Amino acid sequence: MGEYEVNSEPALASRHSDALSGMAPEEDAVAGPNRSSVGPRRTFRLLTLLLMLAMPLANLTLLGQYREGVVQRVPDADAATVKVGIASAWLFGSVLNALGMLFVVLIAGAAGAAACRLAGSRGAFADDRTFLGLAVSGFLLGKLLVLTLGSVLFSLPSSDHIVAVLGGTDPSLAVLAGVCTLVARHSARLSWPRSTTCALAPTGLFTVASLIA
């Protein structure tokens, strides 16, 4: 009896280790996608934050327009009152534009992810939303950088039109559609025609938001 108990311990230990080794690949398979989505989500949050923080700087180009508006509304205002009015207009416009950009990025990402789900996405909804939101925020940051460099180097557009052009509709929307197509292809693992169709959702929503604004 004692010999049986001694010999059975290694067998039980070996079966226990086999069970644990069999579970490890499944746990790694579950944890793998979660780890792979952390990087894009951090990048998405960073780019969205940078975009929101860039709006107050972009609104500095509108100080001349703010001054004209204050003078027209309060013709007899002294210099201190004019400065307060300009600062208030700049602060209000900066907050409004930053929140507007955040809203557009989040809604465009969600709309694109929903379109991918309808088209048969093989990825998670949260991942599709993150990647497409990342595409929109990256597009807006890149466009803002190009407009700023163009204004500084070539005065095209003029500095006081940067914000208007950033939120406007122009041929650069084709770039946004192309980027969203590539992102949908990568994240949702769809065919090119379906990825192109899904890209129309965030691009169209951004276009509508630009026309309304």
What layout of secondary structure does this protein have?
Layout: H1 2-59, H2 63-73, H3 79-118, H4 125-154, H5 162-166, H6 173-187, H7 192-212
Query: Taking all residues together, what is the mean pLDDT?
Result: 86
Determine the strand fraction and express it as a percent band: under 5%
Return the domain count: 1
Order of helices and strands: HHHHHHH
Q: Distance between the terminal alpha carbons, to the nearest Å?
A: 86 Å
| Share of helical residues | over 70%
SS element count, helices:
7
Could you name the ranges where pLDDT drops below 50 across 5 or more consecutive residues? 2-6, 16-32
What is the 3D shape? Answer: elongated
According to DSSP, the number of beta strands is 0
Radius of gyration: 27 Å
Structural class category: mainly alpha
Let me know the largest β-sheet.
Answer: none
What does this structure look like?
By secondary structure, the chain is an all-alpha fold. It has one domain. It is 85% helix and 0% strand. Helix 2 crosses helix 3 (79-118). The longest helix has 58 residues, at 2-59. The N and C termini lie far apart (86 Å). Residues 2-6 and 16-32 have low confidence and may be disordered.
